[in-house]
Amino acid sequence: MNFIISNTPFDKRKLNKLAQSLVFGSYNGLHWCADSQIVTCEKPQSFFGFIQGYLNDFSLDKLAVNHQNESAISKVLNTWPVQKDVSGSFALTVLNLQDNSIQMCNDVIGFYPLYYSITKEVVVITSSLIWASSIRPVAFDAIGVAQRTLGKEYANIGSRTILKDYKRLLPGESMTIDLSNLEVTACYDNSLYANLGHAKTPAVSDYKQFWELYKREINYAAAKKEKTSVALSGGMDSRILLGAISEEVNPICLTYGNLESYEVKVARKISKIKNLEFYSYEDLDLYFPTRTTMESYVKETEAVYVSSWLEILENRPKDDGMQLLLGDMCEVLPGRNIKVYSGRHTRISNFIKTNILKKDFEFTKSSDIRFEQWKERKTTEALKRYSERRFSTLEMHMSYKDLVAGVTYNLEELFKRIESHKLPYIELYDELYAWYTHSRIPMGKQILICNSKFNAVCPPMALSVLRAASNIHPNNRLNYRFMHGLFKHNKDLRPLRKVPTNQSPLVPQYTYAPLIFLVWGIRSKMDQYYIKRILKKKNPNLRYRLFKGLNWVKVYQNENLESRIPTYFSPNHLGDKVSENIYNRIVSRKKLEKWPLTNTDLMSLASLNIEMTIISRHNSETKI
Length: 624
Fold this sequence. Notes:
Elements: E1 3-6, H1 12-16, E2 23-27, E3 30-34, E4 39-43, E5 47-57, H2 65-78, E6 86-96, E7 101-106, E8 115-118, E9 123-126, H3 129-132, H4 142-150, E10 167-168, E11 173-178, E12 183-188, H5 204-222, E13 227-231, H6 236-244, E14 252-256, H7 262-273, E15 278-281, H8 291-301, H9 308-313, E16 322-325, H10 344-349, H11 351-356, H12 368-383, H13 388-391, H14 400-419, H15 427-450, E17 455-457, H16 463-470, H17 474-477, H18 481-489, H19 513-537, H20 552-555, H21 561-568, H22 576-590, H23 600-618
Parallel strand pairs: 13-14, 13-16, 14-15, 16-17
Antiparallel strand pairs: 1-3, 1-9, 2-3, 4-5, 5-6, 6-7, 7-11, 8-9, 8-10, 11-12
Helix pairs in contact: 4-14, 5-16, 5-18, 8-23, 12-14, 14-15, 21-22
């Protein structure tokens, strides 16, 4: 699902090596190329546009998909931030034929990447850095590569990318380029938290009002394709998503994992309540896939991160008419990114006060001084990942001072976006920062990689839903308070309350909250016991968890593991020290010297190296 626009001609041979069924076009000195999956919206007398994700115009019928696109784009061109009747989860690039300009914008989180390079003579806008490398000579950005190698969750910060002269659009940013003189103007959507409610307990009408808004968004999104599927887990967010879909849609339910896994069993029970088809796919060999498999997904999506999705993507036939709806990537309704109250120990220490006595959570009023103090703490926290010792493992022509300055500059970009929202509590700084980092890139990659087989979208993260959810007072979101209210007060969700959550097994979701918390605590303690026992005895055949789930111990016992890892780093763009560190990390996890919780760190670095290899292959002038 890629496109590229430039005022310089393309080398079509290079682009044809990256994707099949490409469509080329030109207009008034601009050249463009898109793969066959891109959604285009044409209206020759006014504009031509590319939509990643989807747009809704609620003033039109949900089945009028083409008219919705045209109407929504027209409204985006006229007003930013967009008004309440326009929503969606999207990145949009529009050539405005009336004033010879290009406008590009993305929603308030910016899951879908929009990259751009604007110099005195050349303009390039694209959804793929790999595609960008096929247009003109490029060089790797050492700071961008270092962020992807050393940074938290191995992601770039702010507008930074791994290519020099290429930036990524910031969350909620709308940028207009006047093609007559290449002047650039930008404005921002700061509508999150704009009408924050009170801490008092919501009325029944508040739950119903939010639910109707949520259902409208979901069902407008579901109408975009003939067939719909839902990525269903054993958690809360995906069952809320499923409960919102109207019966006429009749989606199928997809998940990954063994049918005997507790979470898969929970998901299956949910699908049975709704009388829907259910499929789960398991293939542990795909957690460390072949180099060929890795490269195909990197080339198409640049989004290899959570290997679990490959279990579905490699085993489910491709269906261009199938839409895949994914759940909340920001965990906004339970407030899980409000850092001070999200940790395991904090939840336990606040148990009696907030769960049993139903006391309010405490929040600190923001001020200029407190915001500066928060920025300083956040910068110090981020720069710990970029210590001189870790920097020494990189083989790049860059000083440590330049790296620190570059990281600090990109952090400041996000700080300015957060500051512009004028948040009332300092605890919300952490939440919005997490949305702009963790949710935007690592979590967003799950949507992007699923686009390789489906039209994957995330309607719970659409404008209308995020704006409404962010305006629920955090006191009423934490501890799943608002989520439980939704299930209690809306008939669409009540049947799904019977099924336990994956986190608190055995007890129905409607059970008294302190009991659910107690069950969660017992399960957590038992899981810790089994983990410590495996590490102590170094026996991969011992019980892994209290309830069956994804067995990471077994994943790392893959007989092909040691032979596949070197293929990810051949050729090696990250340096011998980085690849050696990765190999040693994997071996220590296989030997159970360290706990093998996940492999997202390893997949992130491997996919980065493969991405750099593909770029170098198509652009011989790349260097760091």
